[in-house]
């Protein structure tokens, strides 16, 4: 049930003031780039705000240790639509520690541990009642262990064992990662159809992942993980209950989630370097660099199979009747379609389906869009993007929601939901990114009214969402 939260004008005023201030800073940086640059300082040239930390980072690097601290915060507000007009601030701090074991005479090994401190309030679930959440970092407030794994490379293969968040490697799209809406990261379909949304941010599960590169342009990815990162039945998605709050439950009592993905590269060649994963954890890079004037692209096909139990959608999530096993299929395409110097235009598309309507809320979802790197000559590191997504619910789930609404419950009868997003990532400094964002969420409650006290008898209408995100690497 959605929490009732009074509308506040003050957070919106603070959001506007913050946007204005950061826009002024961005304009100053653009002016510096277009004209004579200011006197060079270590601060504005450093890849991190704290630089080498007084010599600590080079000392650690000499011993194979890398340390990363990242802070991502945002303010979001919906001036129209949703259950009520509101604004919310949320964010997370990530601490990551990586160890290259070759520094100790063990070649090919990488140890990684990362933790999250999540703060703020959620706009999407509390004030909009949407499936495609407007923020990819929206989560329950907690301080938690996130990932804890060891990876060993042997020739063209590597194996990763431990606590893993699978959205770091599976189902990813490089171009889609520019956007703020959650479905552009870990998509809405597995978020709704897997236990607790699956082992994806801010959750993780114990498992083993294998990766093999038979050629420079082909990668085979597969793994098996505990399917329930918080434990309990399907309805339990509590991120703040017991050991699940700290990320130390290490649960193995659920079913097995099998993931498999085949990746193809076009106009690419190997690049021997290391790069951070999507959320900043140090892992060996699977990226490649273009070798000819052709346009590089990456194509992926994959799927999952879950051996766990799933409630019958026609009888509701809390019903005793359950179905064994579940599966889903997907395809992802990232393609550069034009490039000239630093300026490039890329397109992406991601399709996925979960055909078993008796156990899946969302049976089809897709995302797509276009991004441009260096949209302005004076801003070579900025990116602008326009994207869209849609989620369609299964017939059995719709029938159940209609029955609940007819009985007088506070329920949104959804049939489909769509979103449109326009975003701009401004690289203010190598360590600082500011991102204004605009989203339009079409029929967030599935074009049906919510009855009762939660919505005050009003329809949860299509919502306009304005946002501003800032990310700092310390």
Automatic annotation (TrEMBL):
Region ranges (Disordered)? 273-294
InterPro entries reported for this sequence? Carb-sel_porin_OprB (IPR007049), OprB_Porin (IPR052932), OprB_sf (IPR038673)
Task: List residues traversing the bilayer.
Answer: none
Point out the signal peptide segment.
Answer: 1-33
Highest taxon in the source lineage: Bacteria
Pfam families xref list: OprB
Q: Does the keyword Endoplasmic reticulum apply?
A: no
Q: What are the protein's UniProt keywords?
A: Signal
Query: What family, per the record?
Result: Belongs to the OprB family.
Q: Which PANTHER family match?
A: PORIN B (PTHR37944:SF1)
The name this protein goes by in its record: Carbohydrate porin
């Amino acid at each position: 049930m959605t929490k009732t939260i009074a509308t506040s004008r003050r957070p919106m005023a603070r959001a506007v003031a913050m946007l204005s201030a950061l826009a002024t800073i961005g304009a100053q940086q653009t002016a510096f780039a277009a004209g004579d640059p200011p006197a060079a300082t270590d601060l504005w040239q450093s890849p991190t705000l704290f630089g080498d930390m007084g010599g600590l980072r080079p000392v650690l690097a000499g011993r194979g240790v890398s340390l990363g601290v990242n802070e991502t915060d945002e303010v979001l507000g919906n001036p129209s639509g949703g259950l009520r007009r509101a604004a919310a601030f949320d964010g997370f701090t990530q601490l990551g520690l990586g160890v290259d074991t070759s520094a100790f005479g063990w070649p090919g090994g990488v140890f990684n541990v990362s933790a999250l401190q999540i703060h703020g309030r959620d706009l999407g679930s509390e004030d909009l009642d949407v499936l495609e959440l407007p923020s990819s970092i929206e989560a329950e407030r907690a301080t938690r262990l996130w990932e804890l794994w060891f990876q060993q490379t042997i020739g063209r293969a590597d194996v990763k064992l431990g606590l893993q968040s699978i959205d770091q490697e599976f189902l990813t799209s490089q171009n889609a990662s520019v956007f703020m809406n959650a479905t552009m990261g870990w998509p809405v379909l597995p978020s709704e159809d897997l236990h607790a949304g699956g082992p994806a941010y801010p959750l993780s599960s114990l498992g083993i992942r294998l990766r093999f590169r038979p050629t420079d342009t082909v990668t085979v990815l597969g793994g098996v993980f505990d399917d329930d990162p918080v434990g309990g039945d399907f309805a339990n998605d509590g991120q703040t209950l017991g050991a699940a709050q700290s990320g130390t439950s290490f649960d193995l009592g659920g079913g097995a989630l099998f993931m498999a993905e085949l990746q193809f590269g076009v106009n690419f060649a190997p690049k021997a370097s290391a790069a951070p994963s999507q959320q900043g954890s140090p892992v060996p890079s699977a990226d490649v660099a273009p070798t000819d004037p052709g346009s590089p692209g990456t194509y992926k096909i994959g799927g999952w199979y879950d051996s766990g139990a799933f409630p019958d959608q026609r009888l509701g999530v809390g019903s005793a009747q359950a179905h064994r096993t579940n599966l889903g299929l997907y395809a992802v395409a990232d393609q550069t379609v034009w490039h000239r110097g630093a300026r490039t235009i890329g397109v992406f598309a991601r399709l996925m389906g979960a055909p078993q309507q008796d156990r899946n809320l969302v049976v089809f979802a897709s995302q797509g869009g276009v991004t441009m790197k260096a949209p302005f000559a004076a801003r070579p590191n900025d990116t602008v993007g326009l994207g869209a997504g849609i989620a369609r619910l299964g017939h059995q789930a719709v029938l159940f929601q209609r029955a609940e609404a007819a009985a007088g419950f506070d329920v949104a009868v959804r049939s489909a939901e769509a979103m449109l997003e326009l975003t701009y990532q401004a690289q203010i400094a190598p360590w600082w990114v500011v991102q204004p964002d605009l989203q339009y969420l079409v029929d967030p409650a599935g074009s049906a009214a919510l009855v009762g006290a939660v919505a005050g008898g009003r329809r949860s209408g299509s919502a306009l969402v304005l946002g501003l995100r800032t990310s700092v690497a310390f």
